[in-house]
Write the structure tokens for this entry.
Amino acid sequence: MKSVRIHGFGGPEVLKYEDAPMPEPGVDDILVRIHSAAVNPVDWKIRNGSSKAFPVDFPLILGWDLAGTVVEAGKMARGFKPGDKIFARPDTLRNGAYAEYIAMRSCEAALAPASIPPEQAAGVPLAAQTAWVGLFEVGRLKPGQKVLIHGGSGGVGIFAVQLAAVAGARVVATTSGKNIELVRSLGASQVINYQEEDFTRMAKDFDLVMDTVGGETQKKSWDLIEKGGSLVSTVGVDSAEAQRRGIRGSSFMLQSHGARLAEIGKFIDEGKVLVVIEKEFPLTEARQAQELSARGHARGKIIIRIE
């Protein structure tokens, strides 16, 4: 099969478009013909060696966000049959989705939303589940509460704004000036242009802050949270500061579940959650796709179209 692999750590130039062996599915796996894959920061962080959380065996196929069609289902793979359209965030300890085929555990997949094309479905699993877990499973957000979402136009932020609004929370989000109207249209009641406005002076008294930025943004956010509130981060959290202030500070790594993904798919099919795509690339241009992601200013998801 055609794939994009790396044979060692390095810059974008180590991404090689080449033939790779067909994956061999296990008894609880599904073999999927991939239509599209999404690019996420974890892809290029593993590629350049800056992420130490995942052991790597070379050669490695990157990319763990996909939509495609089931070709084969193992004897112990429940809920899927050949021909099913699925979307998934497979295990990062196995080869990924910058390829024509992938073998993955069936419990990591869900039937794809019927209302959107597969190139959009590929952009959902990692980002939407990260938003869901951060808001509800870790952040414990409830209807009527007030939440501040940093990076409201990013891959995770776009889903976080929408899911929080659907849940009945009051949503405040930060973004750049060019994306203000987009973020407002997704359900934010207040949108702050971080390029021109000091978000610490624009809003306060939050029950939850969801931080996808870190650094100074996180440091400035502590003063805006009610005592007993929460700060949830995808990029690490200062636990000592959280304890000193009487605030729950939590950071997490996503564990993907097909059942959770199926629930998100229902919201998409009901028209309550939209998918925003920044740009599509062919598999042969995976390098350009990663370079765009690494610049950090994409509005929504970056997609690699394979089929």
Remarks:
- The mean pLDDT is 96.
- The longest helix spans residues 125-138.
- The CA atoms of residues 192 and 198 lie 8 Å apart.
